[in-house]
Amino acid sequence: MKKHKFKILLLVCFTVFSAKAQTVLTVDEAIKIALENNFDIRIAANDLKIDKTNVTIGNAGILPTVTANVVDNNGIQNSKQTRSDGTVNELDNAKNNSLNYGVGLNWTIFDGLGMFARYDQLKELQKLGEAELRLSILTSISDVISTYYNIAQQQQQLSALDSTIVISKQRLELANNRYTIGKASKLEVLNAQVDLNTDTTNLLRQKELYANTKIAMNQILARDPQTDFIVENEIVIDRTLQLGELTALAQKQNPQLEAQVINKRVSELQLKQIKANRYPVIGINTGYNFARTESSLGFTTQTSANGLTYGFTASMNIFDGFNQNRSEKVARLQVQNSQLLIEQQTENIKSQLASAFQTYLTNIELADLEQKNEEIAKQNLDITMEKFRIGTIPTIEFRTAQLNYITAQTRNNDAQFQAKLSEIALKELAGNLKF
After folding, report:
1. pLDDT in tens, 104-138
2. Side-chain half-sphere of 2: how many Cα atoms within 13 Å?
């Protein structure tokens, strides 16, 4: 008995030492790494920078444009001129050139206020980019937390299977001892060996799953897939969530709903821009230009001029084949569709929250039930093990108690994990995952 306890103690000490040798990754640290490294977040952040860069009055068409122009034309021609008095002038390889250069300014000062609507639309598109970034962050953080607690659950399962291996080895040793002294048959030893091999196979499969899940976590964190770490085993479930509070938060913070509201505003501003086409477009222009021409043949061999030019332009659409009316009608329908999408998204979120909340309540009850069931299975295993030691029960009964305990541990670990996933899903829908 003391020998068996000593082996278990050695195994526990080795496990603790191995855990200390590895880096313990907390959930807060994982979230921080994801915020810094995750590719989806970084791409969304760059898209937002693009939207911010586009929000300028120049991009909206409010500022004037200033251009510098240079035109230099040269030619070499064989020329012949016959004047009205009959005089003929001829010149081969006559050179001709003209040079024009200057600076011009064009400024649309009125376009039915369409330029201001475009500027407001650019600002709304920036807000849309911010909502999309929050959605990307929320989704990535949800993936991080879910994967983190999946690893925690698998670590618990590994610990359970390690304990099972210890018990199965004790059983094999007891069977061998009983066989040696003639109190058990060879069949009992063989059965114990087969069960130990089965438990070892299950442990290897679990180790494979555990390693692959850690690789998936490293991928989410955008770091070396072979980075080794362990996570904190404890899964703490928030049992204080209320459906009414979550629904109120979702209507204020859910990025998908927020994006639909912004899209409606964008559609309304697009309608304003289209309506602006009914008004005249007035612009002013000015500039300073220099011109010079040279000709080898003719009455004037050189001319030059420079000075200021200015003026204004005005245009107004009178008839365009009823396209203006069609465009406004389409834009109004797009505004209506945007409102319908807001209502649809609101109802979808309410339905998802109600369904997820019911799952959350059920999973909490199951977590409590499975925890109690594991405690009962552990008591049953302890009693069965003592009876098996003194030889009052057969091997099959001991194995049944052992398998029941393994199953109870697995179900409890999974129940705790599923309850945590339900909590994460609710907070994600409400836009309330902390980061």
Report:
1. 999 999 999 999 999 999 999 999 999 999 999 99
2. 0
Structural domain boundaries enclosing 118:
2-11+25-55+111-280+316-429
- Do the domain assignments include residue 400? yes
> Does 149 have pLDDT greater than 60?
yes
> Per-residue pLDDT averaged across 176-196, rounded?
87
In this structure, of 176-180, 246-250, 403-407, the range with the lowest mean pLDDT score is 176-180
Read off the amino acid at residue 82: T
Is the residue at 63 inside a domain? no
Report helix, strand or coil for 67.
strand
The pLDDT of residue 86: 66
d(CA 157, CA 305): 91
Domain count, the chain: 1
Is the pTM higher than 0.70? Answer: yes
| 8 Å CB contact between 50 and 268 | no
Helix ranges, 254-322 (H):
255-275
Does residue 68 lie in a domain region? no
Mean pLDDT of the chain: 89
**Cβ–Cβ contacts within 10 Å for residue 49, how many?**
13
Torsion, CA 205, CA 209, CA 211, CA 215, rounded to 10? 160
- Of 405, 409, 403, which is closest to residue 371 (Cα–Cα)? 409
Among residues 431, 417, 426, 408, the alpha carbon closest in space to that of 147 is found at 417
Q: Note the pLDDT tens digit of each residue in 322-352.
A: 999 999 999 999 999 999 999 999 999 999 9
Q: Closest Cα partner for 149 from 234, 273, 32? A: 234
Domain of 394, CATH number, reads 1.20.1600.10
| Location of structure tokens 């959350």 | 360
Q: In whole angstroms, how large is the CA radius of gyration of the chain?
A: 40
Across residues 30-44, what is the average pLDDT? 94
Pair of tokens at residue 267: 């559609």
Residues 6+ apart with CB under 8 A from 149: 27, 235, 417, 420, 421
Reading the block at residue 42, the tokens are 């970084």
Assigned domain for 95 exists: no
Q: Is 164 left (phi over 0), alpha (psi -120 to 50) or beta?
A: alpha
